[in-house]
Specification:
Elements: E1 2-8, H1 11-22, E2 28-34, E3 48-52, H2 58-61, E4 69-75, H3 79-92, E5 98-102, E6 113-117, H4 118-127, E7 147-151, E8 171-178, E9 181-183, E10 196-201, H5 203-214, E11 227-233, H6 239-253, E12 261-266, H7 271-279, E13 285-290, H8 296-307, E14 309-315, H9 316-319, H10 322-331, E15 335-338, E16 348-353, H11 359-372, E17 376-381, H12 390-403, E18 407-411, H13 416-421, E19 427-432, H14 434-437, E20 460-465
Parallel strand pairs: 1-2, 1-4, 2-3, 4-5, 5-6, 11-12, 11-14, 12-13, 14-15, 16-17, 16-19, 17-18, 19-20
Antiparallel strand pairs: 7-10, 8-9, 8-10, 15-20
Helix pairs in contact: 8-10, 11-12
């Protein structure tokens, strides 16, 4: 959770705290510094912590203020109190953003200080009530959240994405504000950190969109789900290969941000694996043995839903079956297909740059997983002369800066599959689309490189759904 510091005093501060307590900003923790002993009576939630002390005293303020606070808001009645508290904070924390509700016309050259002119705000509100005056984007609409603005943070899954690659169903990005300028949205516009987005749509949907924009990287398997589901079919497997798969999943779950790992073994053919499953005591891991007839195509959707899986794991033997791929595709969840290469030794991830316009859509998940697994990202561009790919390369380069990840670009007119087969080990990312379900070895006679993923079947591959 993010920590916010609020220095509060007076009736405006009380109204602000009422709004905070009654709203849903439960992704933040609010530290309230005040001198009014009656102020904590407004506390009704668990996300506000009250500290009764004098913010004009550097020593007392230091008892609460720390580097963990991402921003400071000063809402007080007295000018001297506001300025003194501001100076105390700025003397110790040069970079933290500070916001002051300004009743007095404070002048400053501090670029990290935002002054909210209360007189101008009230004048604009009153001005909008005059007849024949157009209403500005302030307290308009239904007033129940149908028009919302959100600041795009660094690390957001929406940062460095073009508007054309953001699915907007039942909601729209109505405007983008950047550096104090209004930018009208168009498909080619790229969202950048600190952009202010004006969102329009159903309030319930905007609430989810707001949270999605604010979610930072490093959360996979979220937002697809919270847990990992691994289905192992022992019908054509040995005890050793089953044990290896289980160990792989347990290792992977220790690296990702999943909450729980479910391992489901179907068609058990060795009692030793049953004994091992019973004796396994790994926190957050549950192994289920299914003795009844398990029809994958009918059961996987239900299992994914019940386990709240954000990542499904199968081996290449299962994934080769078209009916299995079809059932996995319908779940709309990322799927890790285990190859024969050991996943514990992987140090590289790879993605083929093709004409597929959905590569940008899955890029956040690609970097999220690569970051959590500490993998160096590799882009293979088979047609360096094609200009349409330049914006995709730019997009990946921008994400690499966000994640502070190494990014290697391989540009060649040679067959990329042959080049990749020379690599010892890597994790390949593939958009999970219809062509994956219908893929066959006859695809080698067609020019679409996306259909040839199965020629790298020995490697581990993650198929990311295009939502």
């Amino acid at each position: 959770m993010k920590k916010i510091l609020i220095i509060a005093d007076g009736p405006v501060a009380k109204k602000l705290l009422e709004r905070i307590e009654k709203s849903y900003p439960n992704d933040n923790v609010y530290d309230i510094v005040h001198t009014d002993p009656e102020l904590p009576r407004y506390a009704t939630g668990i996300y506000c912590r009250y500290f009764q002390l004098d913010a004009t005293s550097p020593v007392r303020l230091s008892q609460v203020m720390s580097k963990k606070h991402l921003a400071v808001y000063i809402v007080v009645q007295d000018r001297i109190d506001a300025v003194t508290a501001y100076e105390n904070i700025r003397n110790s924390y040069r970079e933290v953003p500070i916001y002051i509700l300004d009743h007095w016309g404070i002048e400053t050259e501090d670029e990290g200080l935002t002054l909210i002119d209360s007189n101008e705000f009230l004048a604009n509100k009153f001005f909008s009530q005059l007849p024949d005056i157009p209403v500005f984007a302030q307290q308009v609409g239904l007033g129940i959240g149908d028009i919302t603005e959100v600041i795009v943070p660094f690390g957001s899954t929406y940062a460095y994405r073009h508007l054309s690659n953001i699915e907007q169903k039942s909601w729209k990005i109505g405007a983008v504000y950047r550096n104090g300028q209004l930018i009208l949205p168009k498909p080619s516009l790229m969202i950048r950190p600190n952009d202010v987005l004006l969102l329009i749509g159903q309030p319930s949907i905007l609430k989810d969109v707001y949270k999605a924009i604010k979610v930072e990287h490093g959360q996979f398997p979220a937002p697809y789900g919270k847990n990992i589901l691994h289905v192992i079919d022992m019908d054509e497997m040995t005890y050793e290969s089953t044990l290896k798969e289980m160990e792989t999943t347990i290792h992977l779950s220790s690296l990702l941000k999943n909450k729980f790992t479910f391992i489901k073994i179907i068609n058990p053919n060795d009692f030793a694996i049953v004994e091992y499953a019973r004796s396994l005591e790994v926190p957050g891991v549950q192994v289920d043995i299914v003795y009844d007839d398990y029809r994958f195509t009918e059961s996987i959707g239900k299992d994914v839903k019940q386990s709240n899986a954000g990542l499904v794991i199968v081996n290449k033997g299962l994934f080769r079956k078209k009916k299995v791929r079809r059932a996995l595709y319908k779940t709309k969840k990322p799927v890790l297909k285990l190859g024969v290469k050991p996943i514990t030794d992987i140090a590289q991830s790879a993605i083929l740059l093709s004409e597929n316009k959905n590569l940008e859509t899955i890029s956040s998940a690609v970097f999220d997983i690569s970051s959590q697994l500490s993998l160096v990202m590799n882009l293979y561009n088979i047609d360096p002369e094609e200009k349409e790919k330049s914006h995709i390369i730019e997009h990946f380069e921008n994400l690499a800066e966000i994640y502070a990840k190494d990014l290697e670009l391989h540009q060649s007119t040679n067959n990329p599959l042959r080049q990749m087969q020379y690599e010892e080990n890597f994790l390949q990312f593939v958009p999970f689309e219809e062509y994956v379900v219908n893929a066959s070895f006859l695809d080698i006679f067609f020019p679409n490189i996306d259909k040839l993923y199965h020629f790298l079947d020995e490697y581990n591959q993650i198929f990311i759904p295009v939502l």
